[in-house]
Design a protein that fits this description.
- The structure holds two protein chains of two kinds.
- By secondary structure, chain A is α+β, with helices and mostly antiparallel strands.
- Helices cover about 15% and strands about 15% of the residues of chain A.
- In chain A, the strands form two sheets. Chain A has a three-stranded antiparallel β-sheet. In chain A, strands 1-4 form a two-stranded antiparallel sheet.
- Chain A is elongated, with a radius of gyration of 25 Å.
- Chain B has a single domain, classed as Cytochrome-c3 Hydrogenase, chain B (Orthogonal Bundle).
- In chain B, the strands form three sheets. Chain B has a three-stranded antiparallel β-sheet with strand order 1-2-3. In chain B, strands 6-7-8 form a three-stranded antiparallel β-sheet. Chain B has a two-stranded antiparallel sheet with strand order 4-5.
- In chain B, a hairpin with a 2-residue loop joins strand 6 and strand 7.
- Chain B contains 13 helices and eight strands.
- The chains are: A alpha+beta, B alpha+beta.
- At the A-B interface, helix 1 of A face helix 2, helix 5 and helix 6 of B.
């Protein structure tokens, strides 16, 4: 039997706004919960390396001595485990997706963040000449 | 008669994933189909002993992008059973909610692909437009569109308030009316019926003996649904397996369509019964022992095996996925079919090759 179901939908579609958006000129819809990109507040980061050990994709590299935190964006699976296990809660998720990436050969897929250098220690007080 | 061997795949417009078939043809008639897989094996099972058991859940749910929540859930439930962890009630209800939402999303995706396979592109677009609403709910509640990372050993990571849950279910019920308009086309449209009715008939006995699972088995008249075993909180909900008896592609399509509405009904029931505050239980100790866990994926029954040895690394993890079980029935239905029906027949088992190869 001939069904009118599709015909109705097709006619309704003529008067409906498009269901798609003109991405990237119109940004996609994101929510407060959306996991877009991993962010690190290096001021409170203690470079303990737990995120590196617990990352399922081995995307994070932490160098405690140099106070350096690196994430390889194309390895990161945006699972949120690093933010969950972080003892200082300095890792968080931005709800905006990162920009497209073009310079893989130039290392643009790696985001490197540095902590504040240690303040120089005050010179030891001269021994009291007694 | 002269035979021709025609390769179908691994790259083929109808297959979203690499699956290869060598079709032995006599004119346009398929007399044999020889499948070969192995294009996207990623060794995820071998990764289990190298990752901490609490972190492996993120890998487990990446076995497949469509049934990802239930893969994570199956792994978590298996580990919880080994560790004898009591999961809070609210977490279990939320797991049922997300599982059923996954089923709606997976079946809508399949309907779109099926429409595309039988050449109805407009219907494909319509179905995926509806699926977008479901993905929006996922992103709002879990933070991910298809990979959710919300299930963890001992519970779930994110809560949904009772009010939000009610609003979402009401939204889904409004969406159900739109879904019905679209699914009616699959069931009543002349050209859709011409492509689906009487195609790839699998008798109840054949389906059972070939080891078919999920909608393929239920479309042949077997009332088998692992959700009836009552895992998570399914035991507290009122539902019956969706069964059709014709065993053809149309029946498989109808089972999936009816399951969409059943899932929305189950979510409504979850909304009324959810209680408690806690969403996760504290994990103490390490998994020591082994466990088999069966769950119902949108594509059928999936089996997980977990073996722990008292350390934080599992000794063995194994998955038997529904597509793996549904390939033998697909080969049987392909024999004797026309070449033009091969895409529809292949898609009628809802193949997921990344699950199968892991």
């Amino acid at each position: 039997m001939f069904s009118m179901a599709m015909l109705k939908t097709t006619i309704a579609n003529l008067f409906r706004k498009p269901a798609t958006v003109l991405y990237p000129f119109v940004p996609g819809k994101v929510y407060a919960n959306t996991r877009g990109e991993v962010m690190n507040d290096t001021d409170s980061c203690i470079f303990c390396g737990i995120c590196q050990r617990r990352c399922p994709a081995n995307a994070i590299t932490v160098n405690r001595a140099a106070k350096e935190w690196k994430i390889e964006r194309l390895r990161c699976i945006v699972c949120g485990n690093c933010a969950d296990v972080c003892p200082k809660k300095c890792l968080s998720f931005d709800n905006q997706y990162p920009k497209p990436l073009a310079g893989y050969e130039k290392g643009e897929n790696v985001k490197t963040l540095h902590g504040k250098p240690d303040e120089p220690k005050p010179p030891a007080a001269p021994a009291n000449p007694a | 008669m002269k035979k021709t061997i025609l390769p179908l795949g691994p790259q083929h417009p109808v297959l979203p994933e690499p699956l290869s078939f060598d079709l032995v043809l006599e004119n346009e008639k398929v007399i044999e189909a020889v499948p070969s897989i192995g294009y996207i094996h990623r060794g995820l099972e071998l990764l289990a002993p190298k990752k901490e058991f609490t972190d492996y859940v993120y890998v487990a749910e990446r076995i497949c992008g469509i049934c990802s929540f239930i893969h994570g859930l199956g792994y978590c439930q298996a580990v919880e059973q080994v560790m004898k962890t009591e999961v809070p009630e609210r977490a279990q209800y939320l797991r049922v909610f997300w599982s059923e939402l996954s089923r709606v999303h997976s079946h809508l995706l399949w309907l779109g692909l099926a429409a595309d396979a039988f050449g109805f592109e407009n219907l494909f677009m319509q179905t995926w437009r509806l699926r977008e609403h479901v993905l929006g709910i996922f992103e709002k509640t879990t933070g991910g569109r298809v990979i959710f990372s919300v299930c963890k050993v001992g519970g779930v990571k994110k809560n949904i308030s009772d009010e939000d849950l009610k609003a979402m279910v009401t939204g889904l019920e409004t969406l159900a009316a739109e879904i019905k308009t679209t699914t009616d086309v699959f069931l009543n449209d002349y050209s859709a019926k011409q492509r689906l009715c009487g195609l790839g008939v699998l008798s109840k006995e054949d389906a059972w003996h070939l080891g078919a699972v999920g909608p393929v088995l239920r479309a042949s008249g077997s009332s088998t649904d692992v959700r009836m075993t009552g895992y998570a909180k399914y035991g507290e909900l009122d539902f019956a397996p969706v069964v059709e008896t014709a065993g053809d592609c149309y029946a498989r399509c109808k089972v999936r369509i009816r399951e969409i509405f059943q899932s929305i009904n189950l979510m409504r029931q979850v909304c009324g019964k959810i209680k408690g505050e806690a969403i996760e239980a504290k994990i103490t100790g390490m998994p020591d022992g082994e466990c088999f866990m069966r769950l119902e994926q949108p594509r059928g029954e999936v089996v997980y095996y977990v073996k722990g040895n008292g350390t934080k690394f599992l000794e063995r993890f194994r998955v038997r996925t529904p597509t793996f079980a549904n390939i033998p029935p697909a080969i049987v239905t392909l024999k004797g079919s026309q070449l033009a029906d091969v895409p529809t027949l292949l898609l009628s088992i809802d193949p997921c090759i990344s699950c199968t190869e892991r």
